[in-house]
Amino acid sequence: MRKKIKIGLTILLSAMLVFSIAGCSDKKESLKKVRIAEVTRSIFYAPQYVAIEKGFFKDEGLDVTLTTTPGGDKTMTALISNGADVALVGSETSIYVYAQGSSDPVINFAQLTQTDGTFLVSRDKIDNFNWDMLKGTTFLGQRKGGMPQMVGEFVLKNHGIDPHKDLNLIQNIDFANVANAFASGTGDFVQLFEPTASIFEKEGKGHIVASFGKESGHVPYTTFMAKQSYMKKNKDTVEKFTRAIYKAQQWVDSHSAAETAKVIAPFFENTDLGLIETVVDRYKAQGSFATDPILDEDEWNNLQNIMNEAGELPKQIDHSTLVNTSIAEKVIKK
């Protein structure tokens, strides 16, 4: 009798396990897949990683896959060729695509960062830095036409420095090799992202003397965007995606840099946790992380002013043409 009961329990438990596995499988299959292409892997994008690690996307019924496609051109190519559903890249790329006469424009629907994310790093330690110190020096800048370089030139001009006359401006080095070039001895000053800027400071290779983010004001530096056709066919998905990002933005805003660092650490396995915290704290302090996904008209106009100042604006484009704020507004109201 006991043997029969034992066999019966075994069968029951096996059946429960099968149904449990099937249930999990069904749940996973029911999740809507969304492919994200990010322009680079950066602590600057902390809220995105929080949305993944805290399960905010899954809570919305989304199964996201994240791929790093280095460079704005590669990221936009992935989006346009249907290699990705959503791109995280600078808003200037959507302007470039539209200016080329695209029949399916790329629409900005959720802003992630609202300032430039680069810092001015000096080879020598400077206690009382002022921007005039750059005149006559060799400045290692970023790629021509990219947001870092355009913001850099915008800030320099605001301080009375003509980057093409007052400096020996070097900007023919690939984004991935700029830091290595400076570390090898090229340039007196360099424009760097984190965590490289802080790593250089820690190792004595350079010293952070100014923030381009503080100097340039609010600008849609990195935004989630998708093709207009995708957004029309996947309205619910885009709304759920935006809601997950908003939850993450609010989470980062209301939690300490140390807590955020611990959550996003899996995305930066080779970076010291203390350094991640330092970088998150620096970006939080200067308001780089947007606290909501709305890309407003003032920010859009500031972006075009910066592009125009750099001679890279193909034509003035209305905010309503390439920006959709209705989804973000709806998400925030709910």
TrEMBL record:
Keywords: Signal
Coiled coil: none
GO cellular component: periplasmic space
Signal peptide region: 1-24
Chief location: periplasm
PANTHER family, per the entry: ALIPHATIC SULFONATES-BINDING PROTEIN-RELATED, TAURINE-BINDING PERIPLASMIC PROTEIN
Name used for this protein in its record: NitT/TauT family transport system substrate-binding protein
